[in-house]
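Cast an eye over this sequence plus tokens and walk me through the fold:

***
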Amino acid sequence: MNLALNKQLSGRLLATGMVACGLILAAGCNDLNIKPPSGKELETFEKAGPVRPTVDVGRLTKAKRHVGPYSVVVGDVLELQIPNVLPDGQADVPDPVGIYQCRVMQGGRISLPIVGLVEVAGKTLAQIESTVVAAYYPKYVVSRPAVVARVAEYDTVPVTVVGAVASPGLYRLRSDEMSLVALLMKAGGIVSDGAGVIRICKKGQAGQTEPLALPIKGLNIPFEDIALRGGELVEVERLNPQVFTVMGLVGKPGAYPYPQGVRYSLLQAFAFAGGVDDTADPRCVRVYRQDADGKIVSALFPIPSSQVSESAHVFIKPGDVLAVEHTPRTRARRILAQVFQASTGLHLSGTYSLNPGP
């Protein structure tokens, strides 16, 4: 029995290894031999100053999660126009249609006259109308009734947003509004001065934040809307010249103070950010700045792994944005880690490490 299991495991490991080789070959080595910019490109980059961030509103709204027609949730109050159905032996009423209000109970059901409990949670209003019609016809009425449903009162949950938005405060969101972009839109959007990083403190997890980079014009940093659960504190951090920002595949993305009179190297910047993602093991970082004409310029550098690295002595400026972006190689490593975890329970860790931060 153990021998058969070992053979099976060996076969799976072999198959996984073959997949790993294929992915690495397909990914190529386009981020393994990165060299710092030289000549005119480096001169232009060195002359550029801090980034004055402008949030790409088009990309932001385009990323909004699509939820489709509203689906009823527990706690909603429904108003239904339904037929006045009477028990046998009672006289008909002058008005054959009545207006009935009911709250969606725990378990997702409502209670209707005569027919009793009906499942409605997770259904759209059109689906609820069809469900109610089916409950009454043909068992209780001889003609198919016209049922109209609407939400008289939405169940909502609180979410707080502070920082660089037009109207900070506490907002109550419906189930179809439970996303970061929807919250930012309710709060009037990002302030004109701009912002770069969002931190989300989840309910019941004090101090635990999830940093997220906003889409900034001129910066090739991906952005995806994320779902909210309710009770979160969303902090929109300004991206200003007195900080440098590290985004992407690092341990602690975010904005870090850049005091006057100091000078930070790339190596020190990565130490602040907790090093790189061990699984993805990225090898390059793109540094963004803005020139005198307002144009975003950037340069690609190898990620320094020690003081002797060539790029360890590249110095950043206040306001710089350091983006450790995905490449085919890093995506392949992420996929491989998932394959290994699913197949063998092993964890694929990178070999990259950083010296302690300053």
